[in-house]
Amino acid sequence: DSGVTQTPKHLITATGQRVTLRCSPRSGDLSVYWYQQSLDQGLQFLIQYYNGEERAKGNILERFSAQQFPDLHSELNLSSLELGDSALYFCASSVADRNQPQHFGDGTRLSIL
Amino acid sequence: GENVEQHPSTLSVQEGDSAVIKCTYSDSASNYFPWYKQELGKGPQLIIDIRSNVGEKKDQRIAVTLNKTAKHFSLHITETQPEDSAVYFCAAKEGNNAGNMLTFGGGTRLMVKP
Questions:
Q1: Are B63 and B86 in contact (CB under 8 A)?
Q2: Block means of pLDDT (10 residues each) for chain B, length 114 residues?
Q3: Chain B closest CA to A45's CA: distance in Å?
Q4: Which residues of B touch A26 (CB under 8 A)?
Q5: Contact between residue A22 and residue A32 where contact means Cβ atoms under 8 Å apart
């Protein structure tokens, strides 16, 4: 158990809808990361937050947004969902914002019908 | 940006044999290289990592080597066991990156036959 908690584990929805994925980092970790894992793209970095502020951004679509709250939990919002958004979404956390090991949760499997 | 290539994509070994997975990276400024193991239905689990100022690191049956000149690093698993069967990912962190984003290789499916 990595200590990173993601909810829900599974999410099934339709095209055009909006969903919110939630992540609680390990106790003491200030930085959270979101990654997308799909069969054709592999593991792709989306975005990083550190102590509430955005620290780094990857190839995150404009339809996707994230935030980190004062209690350090994070949410990833996906809107106007398309079939291609079906994937596993992982959250990871680390103690600091740079050069620190990242520990992953078990992910949310998003299925778009 | 960084590009990480990983080989082989699948690897089948007999229990007790060694397994080697290799990765190359493109950004010479990359300074941190973790390896993750992902089992079915689980998230990636960090198993070992190495920083650019170190050439080799070992933890029991697992070792990682780094060749900065050639820009490649490898994972070595000795005395493989069936529970080592999983997908393994290498990753690299760009040294000039403001944050801590990792670029992952495509993964290696390791199968250890009893």
A1: no
A2: 94 98 94 96 96 92 96 97 97 80 95 96
A3: 7
A4: none
A5: no
